[in-house]
Design goal:
The chain is mostly helical and 330 residues long. Helices cover 82% and strands 0% of the residues.
């Protein structure tokens, strides 16, 4: 009976993955279609470099996972973490949940060696470090745009206000997590509510999850210096992403102000954070293309660069991500 239940669950999650992939491709069908018309203008050797560097970014994510898991005294193989990075990225694409779905799925990838609470914390820290790395790039973008006398002050002000809002939001989340007793009371109330609605829901599993989460949280609090390594990998990851985005300009033979690329990438991430609860695709692209246009990039070039960059993201990340997603289903 238990085997049948697990089989049904795996089948349902597999179908969910197929449906999610279909939805992502459907939402991006115009980008995929228009991409073919743009290919004749591309410098293919730069596209090849973009593909290689994009694959390398997933390997950098694996190095991040390994560095932070070692704080918890777990040594997981890099190949497995590389596969997990691809699968987690796929889940975040198909399930808009501001990354929470991906964090939950990573705990499945690392199970049973790593307790789910610690695995979930590992992914949350990846989001936090990546956000901080992006914010650290903001002064670079400001300076480069200022030196070029670009007239995009409006988008810069909006970005700055959005950054302040994100910092305030992150500070509130961190403050809430730090109040362990409040978190436990909130989780206890939620689990009791779920138990009444779904009698099969296991409260003990949730309590174990929270216990392990805080075991990991306290371990990181005691070893703050060791967090510098995963943070460094997060910075390298963001630099790689910015580099591939800028290479999309070079693929069209255009040398753009790097500050514009930095600000467009930053604002696209900010837009995806606020819109990620509802949409997993479209918001990022709109934020990126809109920022490019606001900072003086011609509309045709802005759309072309955004299209090529995101289509390559989809083609490189989603097919292998779906494959590894299926492999690590329960």
């Amino acid at each position: 009976m238990r085997y049948l239940t697990r089989t049904k669950l795996r089948t349902a999650l597999t179908l969910l993955g197929i449906i999610g992939l279909a939805i992502v491709l459907l939402l991006n069908r115009h980008q995929l279609a228009s991409c073919w018309h743009l290919l004749k203008n591309l410098r293919w050797y730069i596209v090849a470099i973009i593909v290689i560097v994009q694959v390398a970014s997933y390997w950098v994510n694996a190095l991040y996972y390994r560095s932070i898991l070692r704080i918890f005294s777990y040594d997981v193989g890099l190949v497995r973490l590389f596969k997990g990075a691809l699968a987690t990225n796929f889940v975040n694409y198909i399930l808009p949940s501001v990354g929470l779905a991906g964090a939950g799925y990573l705990s499945q990838v690392l199970s049973p060696e790593v307790p789910r609470g610690k695995a979930f914390l590992t992914q949350l820290m990846r989001y936090a470090f990546s956000a901080l790395a992006v914010l650290l790039m903001m002064p670079v973008g400001f300076i480069l745009i200022y030196l070029s006398n670009n007239s995009g002050q409006a988008i810069v002000r909006v970005t700055l206000l959005s950054v302040i809002a994100i910092i305030a939001l992150v500070a509130c989340v961190v403050a809430f997590i730090h109040q362990e007793s409040a978190v436990r009371r909130t989780i206890a109330w939620l689990t009791k509510t779920l138990k009444r609605a779904f009698p099969a829901f296991k409260i003990n599993s949730t309590q174990y999850f929270i216990n392990e989460f805080y075991v990991g949280y306290r371990a990181m609090s005691r070893q703050k210096r060791r967090l510098l390594m995963p943070f460094a990998w997060s910075i390298i990851y963001i630099v790689i992403e910015l580099g591939t985005f800028y290479m999309a300009f070079l693929a069209f033979g255009k040398v753009e102000n790097p500050g514009i690329a930095v600000m467009a990438y930053l604002f696209a991430n900010i837009a995806s954070i606020f819109g990620g609860i509802i949409f997993s695709t479209g918001i990022f692209e709109l934020g990126m293309a809109g920022t490019l246009v606001a900072l003086g990039t011609p509309l045709a070039l802005a759309v072309s660069v955004t299209t090529v960059y995101r289509v390559l993201n989809l083609l490189i990340g989603l097919p292998p991500g779906y494959y590894f997603y299926r492999r690590y289903l329960p």
